[in-house]
Amino acid sequence: MTTVDSQRNLIEIRDLSVTFPSEAGIVRAVRNVSLDIRAGEVLGIVGESGSGKTVMSLSMIGLVAESATITGSITYNGVNLLDLNDNEMSKYRGKDIAMVFQDPLSALNPVHTIGRQIAEAIHIHSDVSKEAALARAVELLEIVGIPRPAERAQSYPHEFSGGMRQRVMIALAIANQPKVILADEPTTALDVTVQAQILDVLKTARDMTGAAVVLVTHDLGVVAGLADRVAIMYAGNVVELGNVDDVYASPAMPYTIGLLRSIPRVDAVGSSRLTSIDGAPPSPVALPAGCAFAPRCPAAAPQCDERIPDLVSLSPTRMIACTRHSEIAELQSSGKLFVEGPQHVALQSLGQSVALEVRGLKKTFPLMKGSVLRRRVGSVFAVDGVDLTLREGRSLALVGESGCGKTTTLLEILNMVAPETGTITVLGRNVAELSKKQRLEMRKDLQIVFQDPFASLDPRLPVGDAIAEPLDNFGMPKAEQNQRVMELLELVGLQRDHASRYPAEFSGGQRQRIAIARALALNPKVLALDEPVSALDVSVRAGVLNLLAELQEKLKLSYLFVSHDLAVVQHVADDVAVMYLGGIVESGPVDEVFARPQHPYTQALLSAVPIPDPAVERVRKRIILQGELPSPANPPSGCRFHTRCQIRATLPADVAARCVSDRPELELRNTSRVACHAPLN
Amino acid sequence: MTSTATESQNQAARLSRRALIWRRFLRNRPAVVGLVVLIVVFIGAFIAPYFSPWNYYENDFDNLLMPPSREHWFGTTGTGIDVFAQTMRGLQKSLIIGILVALFSTSLSAFVGSVAGYLGGRIDRSLMWFVDLLLVLPSLLILSILSRYYQGKSWLLLVVGLTIFDWMITSRVVRGMALSLRERDFVRAAKYMGVPTSTVIVRHLLPNMASIIIIAATLNVGGAILAETGLSYLGFGVQAPDVSLGTLIAEGTAAALTYPWLFMFAGLSLVLTVLSVSFIGDGLRDAFDPGSAKSKKI
């Protein structure tokens, strides 16, 4: 999208600083940022949580909290937006600069219909009749791909799914033909197939309005596919700025280099250790005097700590903030920056006996009605016939979108009681036949690491006590407990004196290490990992993933890995099982399934995952699935996927009919097992 | 947030939660002062009478309604009873009543609330029905009916009576918090480790509700001391010639402006006690809460 006036600056941000007062001290969210937004471009702003990217975008639209102190200037059309009061700013908000928020549920008013909310947005900025505004609202809903727009305009926000709400937000944003659309993590809360749909809509919206899009995100893959230029932010500073292709192909700032190398890619072949960046992002209350990245930087030199490096031009299109920018390229080519880890080898020799086996597992939740006389009016088929086999020393990933039943499956396994239907066998023993005592013993062998390390550690229990909890529970003497806690802390890369501290003193990555240490305390054979890195910052994920790989080799663990992040799965797992609406649609070795997906859902899922490489990402064909995940309370007949299947239309009539009538069984095709009526393509 | 690797790297000994809380409590100066004052008052209330020439039931008919003097440190009442002896006797009673009631009722509410909230289902419903039942019963009425039977019996029965009608609201609050805590991952993690229910409640639920429990306990101390006055008035509880801080204050207020010593010393003792308890409570609360800045290392 290079238009004639693409070099014209639409918004000029100069020396912008935003600070907030807080109990702990002054939070310096944005520090001396200068940035231009050009007409019609897509500018990606990438940063981890706390890097100041959201605050910066909010300051462009005058929505930063009132307690904040903002200095510098943001010039739009010759007007400094920071000088405007709230009333004056309202004239620009929505009209010239529109915003798409991360969470569309809280951004929409629950008591007004969608149509009315969009019409209101139009009404405020232009002098049109109510009817005309409403008609325009329906038009906009059609543009963003809401089916039956005239009818849906009468619906309330809660009647829409997350993806549909985000479409509505985009419709709202483009209602007044804005010049700039600010999109703050527009797809973070969404599933990957829905994300693909929304990014598509965002592209359409941009093409229709010709507006510049500022895409604020932590996901380098999303930026790669959509953005023209990218600004990398770290601790309130822009540290690198340039054309997407240049930045991704030859990152210059050590942080960008590390970040790009630390993210797993779904199209990777084999699984090498990821490059991990040491440490964690600094607290915005206690920023170092010099370069904020210096404490984690492998190229840090004494001069880095002296002052904050300025953003200097490497070339006309490229800016970088690094005191050693002239030496970085050389350091990188000589391999002195971010050494890649050794190849991860699956333990083939161990992979013979079965650690965990699930056959025909079903779990339904009753749908109840009435408060006094409660009666069952239906069932939610959360898990509906799941088969899994986890071999010893290997990793099995269970992937699927939210609501597909993967977490329910995991919890059913961990409950270790006889399931409604089916069998669960842990280390050769059917859990239904265990006595209470045997079940307790069995818990030693099967432990779990939860998704959110901020929730899975008791905030009021010191870390040492938390790790010792399982030991204490199985009657280990206190002295031995101490010894073991110290061992475990060192095993997961923490220090001994961390034992006497509370979880609040640790960063997300460190907390997840503590959770892993706790899970490993009893020397389990199987570790269930429920999205172990999805709550962590991008730059610390690699460290945790590498730790998991290392522990698996050292301790001969088997992992049952539940995730929606296919890139992480590609990196961690040996085998994968893809789940859709309560059932497994495809399972097999991860390299095979990801390289040659056979089930149409797997194909769509894999094609929807953004790859952090603009060259690859732009030419990739994406399969955009139609519609949304059907409700598990009322699943489609036959093949659960037939309502959204992209290949069903191309099938012969008799096969297509079977998709509706019969549920396909998993059958072996090549090396994977696939549940699909369609012949192998 | 920062990993202070350099600091005490070789300090291998791990401090348990109990040790940490105690250390954090000791760092809180007002709390320590409160604790010391409470202990001194408590011991003083029991020892001081031995050094006083007067007894709380003796009348000194030579000195009626006299202000504080060398002979009568806190003055005398209209019937010539030494106010110092009375105050000490009152303190003994009130301290025991206040602290015991607070201890019992808070433990009861924490126990019932957390069990109901954590276990849920039928146990929750029946326990909460019982709580609601006690809440709608007019406690004063029942106690005054019962007082007929208990008149003249041990004043410790008062502790039981006050406890029974003083725990329900806190237990409902505790139950509500337990309901949300049991869904938290760290509780689920403990469950999957096979940790028994009682341990989960003691180790995870109660410390996370410590703030509300401690506040309830602190308020209960003062509340119980004053509630006892009301009951004594109904003839249930401390009866003349025996005294408590509550009865002393109740009797003395009428003459607060003309003969202030009748009321002032008892009142000050009450203020001192309640203040110390609330300082201790604050200190404990901060010691339990790792987010509190007060107890961090300075």
Task: Present the secondary structure layout.
The complex is a heterodimer of chains A (681) and B (298).
Chain A: E1 9-22, E2 25-38, E3 42-46, H1 53-60, E4 69-76, E5 79-80, H2 86-92, E6 97-100, H3 104-107, H4 114-125, H5 130-143, H6 149-152, H7 162-174, E7 180-184, H8 192-209, E8 212-217, H9 220-226, E9 229-234, E10 237-243, H10 244-249, H11 254-262, E11 312-315, E12 318-320, H12 325-333, E13 354-369, E14 375-391, E15 395-399, H13 406-415, E16 421-426, E17 429-430, H14 436-443, E18 446-449, H15 463-473, H16 478-491, H17 508-520, E19 526-530, H18 538-555, E20 558-563, H19 566-572, E21 575-580, E22 583-589, H20 590-595, H21 600-608, H22 614-619, H23 653-661, E23 667-669, E24 672-674
Parallel strand pairs in A: 3-8, 3-9, 6-7, 7-8, 15-20, 15-21, 18-19, 19-20
Antiparallel strand pairs in A: 1-2, 1-4, 4-5, 9-10, 10-12, 11-12, 13-14, 13-16, 16-17, 21-22, 22-24, 23-24
Helix pairs in contact in A: 4-5, 5-7, 7-8, 15-16, 15-17, 16-17, 17-18
Chain B: H1 17-27, H2 29-51, H3 83-119, H4 121-136, H5 139-150, H6 156-164, H7 168-181, H8 185-192, H9 197-208, H10 210-233, H11 245-253, H12 261-288
Specify the helix fraction band of chain A. 25-40%
Estimate the global geometry of chain B from the Cα principal axes.
globular
Structural class assignment of chain A: alpha/beta
Largest sheet of chain B: none
For the largest interface, the chains and their residue counts are: A-B, 46 and 37 residues
Give the beta-strand count of chain A: 24
Computed structural class of chain B: mainly alpha
Q: Span between N and C termini of chain A? A: 36 Å
- The separation of the N and C termini of chain B measures 16 Å
| Overall pLDDT of chain B | 84
User: Which ranges of chain B are low-confidence, i.e. pLDDT below 50, for 5 or more consecutive residues?
Assistant: 1-12
Looking at how many chains there are and whether they match, the oligomeric state comes to heterodimer
Low-confidence stretches of chain A: 1-5
Helix content of chain B: 55-70%
